[in-house]
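Sequence in, structure out.
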Amino acid sequence: MISQRPLLLLTSVSFTAFSLSGYAQTVPPIEAGKQTLIRTGTAEGTGGLVASAHRRATEAGLEMLELGGNAFDATVAVAATLTVVEPMNSNIFGGYGTLIIYASEQEEVLYLDNNGRFPVSANSDVFRQTDSRDVMHSARAVSTPGNLHGFEAMWQTHGSLPWATLWEPAAFHADEGVAVTAALARAITANWERFPDRARQIYGAGGEPFTEGDWLGQHELAASMRQVAEQGSEALYGGSIGEAIIEEIERGNGFLTMADLTAHQPEWFSPISINYREHQLITAGAPSNSFAALVTAGIMSRYHNTALGSNTIVYLHRLAEAAKHGFWTRLRYAGSPENNPPPFEILLSEDYWQQQVDQLDPARASTFQPPGRTLQEGADTTHFVVADRWGNVVSATITLGQAFGSTVFVEESGIWLNNSMAFSTYQPKGNPMDAMPGTRKHSSKTPMLIMKDGRPWVAIGTPGGHTIPQTVAQLSINLIDFDMNLQTAVDTDRIAFAEPNVLLVEEGLQETVSNQLNSLGHQVRSTTQIGLVHALQIEYDNNGDPIRFIGAADRRGVGVALGLDVAVGR
């Protein structure tokens, strides 16, 4: 438990130097050495809630709420701390992401696109070469990182605590160290041969990669966090951190330049939505492929799912076919909206959904006919959710692309850089999903808010690459049609369609169901895990004020949900 402690809170929301040394007083002591991380699933609170993939990140967000900060303050603290505790999955400096936020004062849902843009000098010809796999893990795969600029813009508009305060937990843990989780250990080992020497010194010992429970300190990263706490995002988008990044890119003959960094601007857009029963599903528009989740859910809304029952053979067959079509729409309309704007007025219409239902064969799986495109995708991503006592909500999905991104490591800053250019479609040259210089990049990230009576009811999201929209759609159906509580909805076994014509089925589903799906023509493949969801739910009083928060961390990981009680503390 983080103890209550006084902080010197600055009244000015400006970039003011702030001491991080006092944060050590707030963290329970853990001796260095072999450690095991324990997962905490369901949580409740009356004053706010945070759920993320790691206890330290969740605690960092809750610390901001305890200090009187709001969900937007807590979001920055969570994202920064995730950079420390699961560095393979995201990076607040070198990564990118997608956020859906609800600002209670304005009663408005907004879509914050932190995905950045392709470098102006990008040349996708290098990805059409026979040895392009190596290019995907190189400086040439790095695009403009958008996370830091976006988080700062959100804080400037909606935050309340001093900027420097938000970096205290992350900087402390980077300096003092954290226990290596099993997932991090696997990622380090899998990428060890690509790591530069300095990264091997940080993420290993004696020439060998760290294993689960080893102690990871990241002092250069801590210094970068202190610099940004004092200087703001300018340190990256034009300052010395940015200069170090560009020097590393130039050594690897990459495309990103200082001009790309200085030209970058956070981008806010209106989200997209559909009505589902008495609820509204809201998520990100283009260039995110989130619309595939709405298409899948929309098709399923034409059925009486409650009568079918959760994960029955009839329900799963229909869900698989709906997800298959949602997958098709992603391939057909993914890409930069400048080149390939999705026809949302068609895709999100009831007439369109009914057309897909009318074509369903209740006794046979359809054969997937791809629209002439494929997508390269990475599943190494993280999702977290935050809500505060005033009803502000953030649903955030952030990433480096693949584990450790490009594996380009900026040694003096301790920063990993993304490989988002690796996830375009390069054949044929010039197709709408090619890496067009200076354009916005597509992604599968699908942070979602489910609204009820005009207020946020549930915030959900997940990592998982191409399975993300399908998982989010299934969660929505579990909650609305099957009236599951939040933790059950998150933990229930899932399916996902994958190319070329495969139906992934989690091992927990009964073997008889898999056999029946095979008999219907689905090419079933068992898998241990689809997605890693973090979610929260809000209950309101008769005046529309939040009175209870419920959080859920997926049983598939070691994530933690923690609630804040405004009366007695946590």
